[in-house]
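Before relying on records like the one below, remember that each one covers exactly one chain. Contacts with other chains, cofactors or solvent are not represented anywhere in the record.
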Amino acid sequence: EYNSQASNEQKIKFYGFDFFDVKTSLDRIHEFFTQVDADFAGKLKKIETLESPHLYTGPYVKKDDIELIEKKLNADSLIYIRNSSNKAWQLTKHLVTILKYAFIINSEGKEEIRDSLMKKNIDWIINFEGRDTKIMLWAHNAHVEYATMFSSNFDRRFKMMGLLLKETYKDQLYTIGFDFNRGEFYANAPVGDAPVADKKLRLTLFEIGTAPKDWLAWQFSQVGKELLFTNLANAVGDEFVKDWLEQRHKIRTIGALFFEEWKSDPDTYYYPCYLSKSFDGLIFVNNTHGITRLN
């Protein structure tokens, strides 16, 4: 209802900022060339995506194919802009950049690259929509937290997306963490006995019990509310609360992948968190319910 009455500049829009589905980017690029260059659009249909060798990254496009698209887009830019619009051309050019990001992630396979490239993608969205625009991001706690992370082999630290955004946008950014006590959620799980590396995964409904005593979720559950929002940024005026916020707390860290055997061992899906340094606010849900999936 809001969008039907708002101008194009004021409409609510949805953008992705991760790089797991370059097929969507390719489809959008193809749509653009169908409008401005039907012959090249036919060539694009022959470009194939390659399966990623890494567990947490999606398909990607060969470097030669990316360079072919970029060269064509730049060489005939004036014609393409005239037959579409400057914004449509800019968006298509950035979709090609996303293909580059996906290639970099797959060719180098380093964890820190993903968060830094997501941050660059968000910078572009803000600049594209105008510096006075407002943006709401939805991502895992670990990505939005003001924190650094160790690489999987502990040989280096890198900044997470939330910290990178904070360094750029400072007080313009307000980050909200999320935790829950018990209930249902969906996550990917291996199909049958297939190893995780085969990527034979199925979206599966899981249910877990009450958080262990003294975990952050357990402490919030003692308040007796089903839903809570805490403004951590304003809570540090009280010395007792400030001291509690600066302590290390165990917070659930359930991502895209989950295993049935983890349900009986909560220590496999938590991470230590210092609330006062990690988030500006926190949403707590006592009981969660699995989403209703659409066909």
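Strands lie at 49-50, 60-61, 148-150, 157-159, 176-190, 201-208, 227-231, 248-252, 270-274, 281-288.
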